[in-house]
Amino acid sequence: MKRPDWYKHGWSLDIKNSSWTEDTENQVDFIVKALGLKGGERILDLACGYGRHALALARRGFQLTGVDITPAFVEDAIQNAAREHLPARFILSDIRNVSFDREFDAVLNLADGAIGYLENDAENLKIFDVVAKALKPGGAHFMDVCSAEHARRHFPKKHWEAGENALALAQFEWDESTRRMTYAGWDVPYGEPAQKPNIVMEDADPVRLYALPELEEILRQRGMHVFASYCDYYGNPSTHKELQLMVCSRNA
Description:
The protein has 2 domains: 6-148 and 210-251, Rossmann fold; 150-206. Helices cover 25% and strands 31% of the residues. With 252 residues, the protein is α/β, with parallel strands linked by helices. It has helices at 24-35, 52-59, 71-84, 121-134, 148-154, 212-220; strands at 42-46, 63-68, 88-92, 104-109, 135-146, 157-162, 166-175, 180-189, 205-208, 224-230, 244-251.
């Protein structure tokens, strides 16, 4: 059984080789379009990882602040921003502990953005409090999470994805009583002797998932309204048939 604070441990820069990091530029294109960003806006990237989206946005002239709990990620992002002289700063912190107040035109939670990772529902809701407080009036929020409705209908399941450097294998399970998905993965690098996958679900990461109506209500309670939802970074509408759920909302 994973420890409750699993999200604080086990992250490394090895994820740069993961197949799900390869679509960054297309994802940034879509986020800019979906939120109607014009250029130069101040953007907060929560649980930014090693800054792949934040740095890509900063290269386009946006003013970026990234927050992450993993020292190696933040150090790497700071070094890359300095090397390229980008308008981006990175903060090492648990995202519940930042206290921005109406400072940003947009807030991002990408590749889950730690939504659902925390110890219980009350702690997970604190992320939405941070989002709502950080946004300027009329500011926009973009989250990219996994869909509880898909998990409820289609888990357990196995999934594979052919990236540029490796074949990514994944296994998903669902606990309806806790609304938590457990996920474990395995990469098979190309050009190397293949090893038998060793996916151990007892060590899987547990993530609290939300359905779109839940997210709409959570955001409504914080003075925000959802104006669009998608299932991919190509603009297809959200559906229970797809695991990915992107939600765009705006602050009052």
